[in-house]
Amino acid sequence: MADELRSGVAPVTSAERIGELDALRGFALLGVLLANLGWWTFSGFTSIPEQRDLWMSDDANRTAILLLNWLVSDKANTLFGVLFGIGFWVMYERLKAKGGDFNRIYLRRLGILFIFGWAHMLFFWPWDILHMYATMGFALFALRGLSMRAMIGIGLTLAVFARPTVELIRKYTGVEESIGGIVWTPEAQAARQEAVLGNDYGAWFNEYWTMATQDYILSGVFIGWWLYVLGRFLVGAWIARQGWLQRTTELLPQIRKLCLIALPTGLALEALYTAIEFEFLAAPLPVAKAIHATGVPILDLGYACGIILLFNSKSWSFLAKLFAPVGRMALTNYVTQSFLYFFLITGVGPGLAQAGKLAPSETLPICFAFFAAQVVFSHFWLKAYRYGPLEWMWRALTYGEVPAMRRKKEKAAQPA
After folding, report:
1. Helices (DSSP H) in 43-74: which residue ranges?
2. Alpha-carbon distances, residue 178 vs 40, 72, 159 (angstroms)
3. What residues does 406 pair with on adjacent strands?
4. Residues in domain DUF418 (predicted)?
């Protein structure tokens, strides 16, 4: 089996890697960290209404939440999803070129991620994205034969309209209110916070199992999220099929122009959405959803163009390249971040039990400090090893044998 899987396949070398992709993954992981810790501490998952009202009455905390909503929320997961689709197509083309069995390798790789992601969500981190990526990764695999036009058409439709459409259906059919009466009442939120703060994993698991079944599965929320993810995968695969990331140096003038348009436009649209979301401005809900659904991909396009320009800059490339080692170890760093959330918020085991105590403005410096540590760790780890720890395990399970972990030291030149 291992020989069949490896046929014609060799590990991607440093020279074969697309450096911009690694930098973009690292940048997206910073956004994931900020959004996850910021919203998990502020939402009804771990806090109660009185605590949130108190935070929003404070200038520093209100500013932190507004900035998070404006600059980060939904942008990080969107960029990460597009990058997954790009990675899928790059792997597809490389394995075909090498004569490798893409179907078997990819499906086995995806099956391992599927098991890991669902276990990660159900037993440890309720906001896991890996289970969605694995599940919709199978759909992306099934749709790989789409024409270019169909791929971008379906991708954009799902990416822009899937989640807001499902959210509006839930609202106007009464599903949202019905589920809210089970999991979002003040009493339910207080019980959830008590379980989070206590040193009782069983109680914590029961609370979040209820959340997963009621507010994620039975409410239909998962439909919007999964289709939203699939749309971003398809957009990413379409971008890779265009070959743009393989030609960034020759496309820099166009990327610069695109950045100058997309970045301010996306910032303006998301600023408008944030103003509506926090009731500084009034607008019908469908209008707010449409602004957000449009603003997110435009702002992400601006972010991505900006990182690519920085990466290829003569003077400032080091800023973008700081993200690259983190992106090369994306799975390891993503899971490590979930350990941080669990340790800070819960009282389980050595947890610090900060649910309801850790203010939004306090989460931002924690996130930046932790990410800086991940940058340093990833940089030094990859100096000595070929893969991140979880990437190494994932590859071993995919190919059925243990790959070499340590980098080979170059032999010193022999004297003549």
Report:
1. 49-56, 59-71
2. 22, 29, 27
3. 385
4. 240-400
Record the pTM: 0.91
DSSP conformation letters of 320-342: HHTTHHHHHTHHHHHHHHHHHHH
- Is 406 a member of any domain? no
Q: Are 325 and 378 in contact (CB under 8 A)?
A: yes
In angstroms, the Cα distances linking 329 to 28, 66, 120, 335, 381 are: 12, 30, 17, 10, 10
pLDDT digits 0-9 by tens, 263-320? 999 999 999 999 999 999 999 989 999 999 999 999 999 999 999 999 999 899 999 9
CB 153 within 8 A of CB 211: no
Structure tokens at 213: 């079944």
DSSP 246: G
- CB-based contacts of 244: which residues, under 8 Å, 6+ apart? 251
**Listed residue (361, 351, 350, 349) closest to 41, CA to CA:** 361
Give the C-alpha separation, 93 to 96, whole Å.
Answer: 5
Cβ–Cβ < 8 Å for 109, 94: no
Residue 411 inside a domain? The answer is no
Closest by CA to 270, choosing from 285, 254, 286, 289, is 289
Number of domains in the chain: 1
Distance CA 271, CA 166 (A): 23
Structural domain range at position 246: 2-399
- Closest to 342 (Cα-Cα) out of 351, 333, 331: 351
Tell me if 288 is assigned to some domain.
yes
Q: Which two tokens stand for residue 180?
A: 């809210």
